[in-house]
């Protein structure tokens, strides 16, 4: 099948996988990078340990903004119904 919808869906699925990898890398990097030390030596941001703030709070806000940008500029609205004249 040479349906353009499959090409768009495949590209958007790859973008989704890349976003999951970025989200996990941010979370893992901050959680285990900053959180692997002695708890008595932690620094705090707004009352939260820095590792938690950056991995869970700031990382979530960053991912929400990134998702909004990606959806606005890279995702396309594709009709679900098959149009007349499409290759089958």
Lay out the secondary structure.
Layout: H1 4-34, E1 44-45, E2 48-49, H2 50-74
Antiparallel strand pairs: 1-2
- SSE run: HEEH
Main beta sheet: strand number and arrangement? Answer: 2 strands, antiparallel
Q: What is the share of helical residues?
A: 55-70%
Strand order of the largest sheet: 1-2
Gross geometry: elongated
Strand content: under 5%
Query: What's the domain count?
Result: 1
Number of discrete helical segments? 2
| pLDDT averaged over residues | 89
Task: Report the strand count.
Answer: 2
Uncertain regions: pLDDT < 50 for 5+ in a row?
A: none
| Structural class designation | mainly alpha
Question: Could you explain how this protein is built, in words?
Answer:
With 88 residues, the protein is mainly α. It has one domain (5-74). Helices cover 64% and strands 5% of the residues. The protein contains two helices and two strands. β1 and β2 form a beta hairpin. The mean pLDDT is 89.
């Amino acid at each position: 099948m040479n349906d353009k919808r499959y090409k768009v869906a495949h590209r958007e699925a790859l973008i989704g996988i890349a976003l999951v990898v970025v989200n996990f890398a941010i979370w893992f990097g901050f959680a285990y990078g900053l959180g692997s030390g002695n708890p008595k030596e932690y620094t705090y941001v707004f009352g939260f340990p820095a590792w938690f703030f950056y991995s869970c709070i700031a990382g979530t806000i960053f991912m929400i903004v990134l998702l909004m940008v990606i959806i606005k500029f890279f995702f396309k609205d594709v009709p679900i119904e098959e149009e007349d004249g499409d290759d089958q």
